[in-house]
């Protein structure tokens, strides 16, 4: 598979080991603001913690990742990527040291208000989701990322929109920790050259003679067959 793109991603280097040049991945980013999308995200922002979830669609599969805001007091704060509940716990524990330790108790509290409990439930529910090829066909790409940012329709603050980026750069989400470069490249090649190609493959139009035969007509349809 040959990749044509204005940016690099973590699996691009696999091309140098050989490629099927008949398959071309035109990796052009496209941003959508959708009023309805089946694979939403969540923000868990309370008790001093800011935790965001992202949904990644990749070649017919779904993945979810999180970003946790890390509070720094002697240097700039930042969002840290977390792929598991253990990594989220580690980030929250870092944020809730010293005089902020009371926030840790609220994060771990075992009731419906506990952030950790909500996130674990979200991860469990997410693992049961599936995505059909139709979603990728409509978005016209093998990759999409659903952002947790809440957007609103122009002139209508009541209509919340979902931000979806097609053909997003996956290295920003450390996706290589979920799918290694070689596997990612192979899956993309099969998906672009197979599933997506089938969706855009033109339907052949038969000539008039073939079309007539399909409909049950032949050269004797409008005259007497002398063989009878």
How would you describe this protein?
This protein is of the alpha+beta class and 228 residues long. It contains six helices and nine strands, in the order E-E-E-E-E-E-E-H-H-H-H-E-E-H-H. Strand 8 and strand 9 form a beta hairpin. 22% of the residues are buried.
Number of strands: 9
Question: How many whole angstroms does the radius of gyration measure?
Answer: 25 Å
Largest sheet: 7 strands, antiparallel
Tell me the overall shape: globular
Which series of helices and strands comes N to C? Answer: EEEEEEEHHHHEEHH
Distance between termini?
58 Å
Please state the structural category. Answer: alpha+beta
Low-confidence stretches: none
Average of per-residue pLDDT values: 85
Q: Percent of residues in helical segments?
A: 25-40%
Number of helices: 6
Q: Per DSSP, what share of the residues sits in E-state strands of 2 or more residues?
A: 25-35%
Q: Helices and strands in order, then pairings?
A:
Elements: E1 2-5, E2 24-27, E3 30-34, E4 43-46, E5 49-58, E6 61-70, E7 78-82, H1 85-95, H2 101-108, H3 115-126, H4 133-139, E8 143-153, E9 156-166, H5 181-200, H6 208-214
């Amino acid at each position: 598979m040959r990749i044509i793109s204005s940016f690099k991603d973590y699996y691009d280097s696999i091309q140098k080991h050989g490629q099927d040049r008949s398959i071309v991945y035109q990796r052009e980013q496209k941003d959508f603001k959708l009023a309805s999308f089946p694979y939403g995200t969540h923000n868990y922002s309370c008790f001093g913690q800011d935790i965001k979830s992202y949904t990644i669609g990749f070649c017919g599969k779904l993945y979810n990742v999180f970003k946790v805001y890390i509070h720094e007091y002697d240097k700039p704060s930042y969002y840290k990527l977390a792929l598991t509940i253990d990594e989220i716990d580690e980030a929250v524990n870092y944020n809730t040291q010293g005089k902020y330790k009371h926030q840790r108790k609220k994060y771990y509290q075992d009731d419906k208000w506990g952030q950790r409990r909500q996130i674990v439930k979200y991860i469990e529910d997410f693992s049961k989701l599936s995505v059909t090829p139709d979603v990728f066909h409509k978005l016209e790409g093998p990759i999409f990322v659903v952002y947790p940012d809440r957007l609103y329709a122009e002139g209508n603050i009541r209509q919340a929109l979902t931000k979806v980026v097609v053909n997003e750069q996956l290295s920003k989400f450390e996706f290589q920790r979920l799918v290694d470069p070689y596997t990612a490249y192979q899956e993309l090649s099969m998906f672009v050259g197979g599933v997506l190609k089938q969706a855009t493959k033109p339907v052949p139009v038969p000539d008039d003679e073939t079309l007539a035969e399909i409909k049950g007509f032949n050269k004797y349809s409008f005259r007497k067959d002398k063989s009878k």
